[in-house]
Amino acid sequence: MDTHVFASLAQIRILLVPIGSISQQTFEKYASEIRSFDAIRLGDIAVEGTKDERARFQPKSLSTGYLHLSFPSHPPPHSHQALSLIRPSQLPLAVIGVTTCSHSEALPEIISQFNGTVLDMFPPPAMYPLARNCFVFEEDSSSGISPGGQHPELIIFPEMMGNRKLHIGTLLGEICSKIFGEFGVLIQRLESPLGNEYLNASLFPSLPLLTDMPPSMDSKDTLPPLPSHSSQPELSKSALSKVAPAMKRNSSLGVPTVRKRLSAIGAASSHGRLFKVMADCFLLAGRTEDALIWYTEALQLLKSPLDTIWNASALEGMATIPILDSWSAGHGLQTSTSVGREPWSDIADKLAQATILYFKVPPSDIDNYQFLSYLYCCCVLRHTSLLFAIWSAKGWGPLAFTTMLQPGPTPYLPPTLSHNESTTWSNLERLSSMSGIPRTTISSLLSQVHGPWLLHLGSRERVSVLEAIASTYSCLGYRRKESYILREVLGCILDLIVCGREEDAHTNMRSFGIKGTVGIRLNESSDGNESILKLIKHVCKVLGVHLDAIQIVDDSSDPMSHSEADDESDIYREPFGWPELQIGVVRESVAVAEALPDFLAVAQYALSSLKTLQEFLEPGDQYHLYSTAARAMQTARRRGATKAVEYWSGRPVVSIALAPLPFVRLPIEKPISALKPRTSDSNAILKGGTDPFLYNPRRMNATQGKSLVVQGELLEFIVIVQNPYVFDMELHSLSLSTSGTPFESNPISLVVPARSYHRVILSGKALTTGSLIIRGCLVQAPGGIPREFVLPLASEEEEERLAHKRSAALCEAGRFKYFGLDSFSWRKNQSPDSSSGSSSRSSKTPSFLECKVVPEQPLLRIRRTTVTHGALMLYDGEMSSIRITFENISLLPIDFVRLAFDDSTISPAQQALAESEMSVFETYETEYALIHRPVFSWIKNDSVTIAPGRKVTLSINCFGKVGCTEGTIHASYSYIHRNPSDSEENSVFHTRQLSYPLMVTVYRMLESHGLDILPYPSYPLGNDDNVMKNSLDLFVEDNGAWCLFSIDIMNTYGTPFEVSLERVQEDVPWGETIVNVPPGSTSRLVIPLKKFLLSDEHISRPIPTLSDRQFVVDKTKLSEAEQQMQRELFWYREELFKCLRCQWREAGGTRYGDLSLRQQRLTLTMLEILRTEKAGIQLTLVRPGNPAEPIQHRAGKYHPPCSELVYVRIKVTNLTKSTLVFTLDVNIDPREHVIHDGVLCDIPVGRLEVKESREVEVAICFLCHGRFEILASARVLESGTSSGTGSARLIAMVDTNT
Question: InterPro entries recorded for this chain (predicted)?
Fold first, then answer.
């Protein structure tokens, strides 16, 4: 392929052709040795001794110039023969065949193959090549190749040749010398009038064979026929002399005078073209001075519109000469012809002028369009290469000359553009600044090449021109322009490949003949496919389409090696490129891959586009790409492809969770210490559970990191998969990826509906105990390979990091503009910051869903119960029992059974206690109800065992509690005492729990209210025997030490109940009061209670809590005195309830229960009556005398006389356990009708010891008859203050008749 070097007009093309069965590697080895001679000194070329026309272009003696060579390995198209005169440098001037040989017998065959190859490449009437040789390199020859009698065009290089490179250089000089001689023969033919007529006959003339030329019309003699060798004409000096006299060079530059030239050339045609051809030959011969003179002469004569192309071509040749001279001189400091102009300005002006001339040529023949377009494109590319070489070399200098003269088979890249940072913006702008040539100038000049005239070029020329344009744009850093041109290159190459393969297929099919209905599929050639696909990927990459988002891997690759744990898929990424353009280039890429065909590439491109451009693709495009990829993968699999595409649809697995095990199969881990007996369960109740074996899922999840599963039992995992596309996505295989203990699971296939999340259940069994780690899922699409998607558990730190990254990405979107490929989304993620972040994340071990596999567990079920339909109906306070029968349905025995209970009243009470918004008294009552009045209870039995297939029955006590609507009986069981080999951990054991829910209905049928404590009456109840008999429990002897307790019971139910109130007071005879309460009525229960007195130390204690809390903060703001009073009321109330027991029994039935009195409150008045007084006071009336005579009293009333002196005798007794000082206060009502002796207030009694009594008398006189009430109260004097401690009342009925 032509590399469009700037100095290509001065380079002699020598075609290197492999001959015979030489391998590509061997050919390139010897071709590289030949190509090492890219320039030869003119002084090193052996000049032939002839003085005829063949010596015209031979180098002069002591010449200092250079001869420039290029060695292409591909022949030019046959159409380029039309350029043989106007552009001789475009065609190979010599052909060198390269082959290997090991014996002399193969030499005739080699020369025959060489001649046949040259004849195929250059069929008659081709003017070139002018010289040809075949280099035979000896290899693996034991006897050696005999050079005797060999063909003159055959040159043998022995295997043991010492300096082969020097010999090759000498042979190249001889070949060039032969070419120069043929140049002289060619010019001699053109100098004749007939030759000049042929030269001016058309726009792109060519000379026929000498034997085919008619005789000259201007000469009397005709040209004798001359033999032609190798399909090229050869003219002898004697024959040419008959046509025209030889042109003699009168100057050292070999330029004849115009007068002599006119005598030899006919005047009918211009001789400007002849001078131009001579200048081209001198330029190829390295004689730049002679070439410059002949170019100057030609330009003066090429003024005709028909010679415009020749004029432009001459300008190109003249522009090449300064570069050759500068390179030969070895320095780059050339003085400018005009001050202020750059050294290359004149060269650029000539090339610009030539470009204009090419562009303005009026095409006269449609056959010439191809050559006009090609010459125009080459001229623009030559101008571009001039500026590009100077720009890339940082200015005018030796590096720029070397770039412009580089003759290699591949484009030469200067060192300034071959390092890693060559395409960075800073490097490109630095080159522009140092060279003085902006990149935009080169780009705008290069854009002149692209146009409709490219359509007139042949396929090879078009590809060559477009390739040169694309490579220049790439070096300039204009990647989008490069991709635009490369898309056209792809179209040209693909047309050539497809057409060539179709022709081969038709040729091969014709060889089969007609075979009926037999289908024949020929093997498809994949040569060149890889290069085409690389070009496609490069174009798409520049436009922002990442075709390598889906990789092609081997079928046998490990799915774990392609695992993906990226959890940043939802992080915002700035879009790059034009979506419409990207979708268009994707369509082209898929079409190109289909046309090659490369089915794996088709699937890769289609699926990569679906993954990266999904948000821009229309539904129709998505369906098309998906169906195309599916067909391609099926075809590739059917044709035995050993590779496949990896899974493509992003992250299909959203989440994985262990499906909750059925409650009856859920294992629960318990410490072995839970088996030890406990003194009290109160703290467990108040903290949220009635028993350590009561299962609470929320508490278990909070305290237990790993889920517990049982060995050998079926596990189910809930997998959420997603499909963001508009089509139903098929998954060929979906299975769990696990590590740790072996896990047996079968993959499933499914179809995920379009644009939806789909829930899938994957099941399996853990085969051994240990830790089971769920890494993620293995997903396989149809025709693809499995891929592991890892789903680590997101920690709080990781969630915070991702949230910060998302916010940072949204914040930075649009704030920064990246240059070049850094703007690609997959390049932005590879920034140093992101790489450091990823390395820090990779240093942390990810955590996965982990399950702890415990040994096999027994299984229990409830066989039967005594509860009907799971409903329990109780009266308030009723006590009953239920029986439950359990059956072991497993193959393991059960040696541990423990019952635990829960009901609907526990949780609200626990919540109220946790909120701590209640008073101290309410807190105590709530705790008391939780601990002492549970709904369910049982008598623990640790010796319960159930063999496999056996049953056991347990009894549970029930208590009716108002507000309870439901309850649950939990039976925890386990197989604890296993063989030592079966248990790995001795510190824990595992239980299962079987729950039996109950619907509880509690009827409130009796309500207690109206609690009252009254003083015991001090008068007898009467003399009726029946009353005394019926009220035996109400009669006591010591009236002052007793009080009456009364409570009202209301029956709100429809059945009568017998209610009993028992006195169980310590050191007091047992007593009971029974009453039958009819439906809808209220009855009062009354029973005497003996007063009691609590010590000061007892009543000063704070109100206790039944939990282990150190203190309870009272929400009410009470003074110290009020708190003391509250404590006193609390303790007397507790002591009161200890003395009484209230029960009920259904009238005529068997149901019974307790009636709670704890809802009643104790008032301060009741407390005063209930509490035993410190001082006991007895009042009596006596008449004066010695001894005093008591006054008559009946029914507790005294009947003193009127207007007589009587004494009120007051007896004070110390009832406490300490010595106290007492005083008395006496009050008589009405006082105005009574006279008394002394004072009635603060009557001193004195100090009384424990149980000591003392009497005080007060003289009074009733002045009228009537009812009088005398009240005496004692007070204790303590620390100067007094407080009431006891009182007594006496009623006196004064009658005048007494």
Answer: Ig_TRAPPC9_Trs120_1st, Ig_TRAPPC9_Trs120_3rd, Ig_TRAPPC9_Trs120_4th, TPR_TRAPPC9_Trs120, Trs120_TRAPPC9, Trs120_TRAPPC9_N
- The answer to whether 126 touches 81, Cβ cutoff 8 Å, is yes
Q: Are residues 445 and 365 in the same domain?
A: yes
Mean pLDDT rounded to a whole number for the chain: 81
CATH number of the domain encompassing residue 1179: 2.60.40.10
Looking at the 3D structure of the chain, how many domains does it have? 6
Q: Which two tokens stand for residue 74?
A: 């591909």
Residue 539 forms part of a structural domain? no
Q: What are phi and psi of 223, to 5 degrees?
A: -75, 130
pLDDT band at 838 (very low <50, low <70, confident <90, very high): very low
The secondary structure element, H or E, covering residue 1141 is: strand 1140-1146
Consecutive H or E run containing 804: helix 796-812
What are the structure tokens assigned to 861, written together?
């079920």
In a domain, 388, yes or no: yes
Give Cα separations from 334 to 9, 286, 434, 820, 891 (angstroms): 22, 20, 17, 37, 104
Q: Are 151 and 30 part of one and the same domain?
A: yes
> Of the candidates 255, 286, 317, which is a domain's last residue?
286
Phi-psi region of 1279 (alpha: psi -120 to 50; beta: other; left: phi over 0): left
pLDDT at residue 685 tops 70:
no
Of the chain, the percentage scoring pLDDT greater than 70 comes to: 81
669: Cα within 13 Å, side-chain hemisphere: 20
Q: Pick 541 or 574 by higher pLDDT.
A: 541
Query: What is the distance between the alpha carbons of residues 712 and 235, in angstroms, rounded to a whole number?
Result: 101
pLDDT at 245 (0 to 100) = 32
Which of 188-197, 280-289, 925-934 reaches the highest mean pLDDT? 280-289
DSSP labels, 504-573: HHHHHHHHH---TT----PPPP-TTHHHHHHHHHHHHHHTT--GGGS-EEETTS-GGGG-B----TTS--
* Structural contact between residues 745 and 735, judged by C-beta atoms closer than 8 angstroms: yes
DSSP 121-145: HS-TT----SEEEEEEEE-S-SS--
- Residues 6 or more apart in contact with residue 30 via CB below 8 angstroms: 98, 135, 137
Q: In Å, what is the CA distance from 916 to each residue of 612, 913, 951, 1107? A: 58, 5, 45, 13
- Clarify whether residues 177 and 59 are in a common domain: yes
pLDDT at 335: 40
Please state, in angstroms and rounded to a whole number, the distance separating the CA atoms of residues 524 and 1087: 115
Q: Which domain holds residue 1277?
A: 1173-1294
- Whether 1142 and 1011 share a structural domain: yes
Question: Among candidates 1235, 1241, 1237, 1290, which has minimal Cα distance to 1267?
Answer: 1290
The answer to whether the beta carbons of residues 1276 and 1283 sit under 8 Å apart is yes
Do residues 1013 and 1155 share a domain?
yes
pLDDT exceeds cutoff 50 at 334: no
Q: Are 1084 and 973 contained in the same domain? A: no
Residue 1138 lies in a domain: yes
pLDDT more than 90, % of the chain: 34
Radius of gyration for the alpha carbons in the chain, expressed in angstroms and rounded = 61
Enter the tokens of residue 795. Answer: 């920690």
CA atoms within 13 A on the CB side of 218: 16
Same domain, 977 and 865: yes
Asked whether residue 1264 falls in the same domain as residue 1230, the answer is yes
Domain boundary among 979, 1000, 1021: 1000
pTM for the structure as a whole? 0.68
Burial class (CB in 10 A: 0-12, 13-18, 19+), 581: middle
Domain CATH number, residue 171: 3.40.50
Read off the DSSP letter of residue 756.
Answer: E
Per-residue exposure over 164-202, b if at least 16 CB sit within 10 Å of its own CB, e if not: eeeebbebbbbbbbbbbbbbbbbbbbbbbbbbbbbbbee
Residue 789: inside a domain: no
Nearest-angstrom CA–CA distance, 583 and 658: 41
To the nearest 10°, report the CA torsion of 278, 283, 288, 289.
Answer: 0
Tell me how far apart the alpha carbons of residues 968 and 1017 are, in angstroms, rounded to a whole number.
52
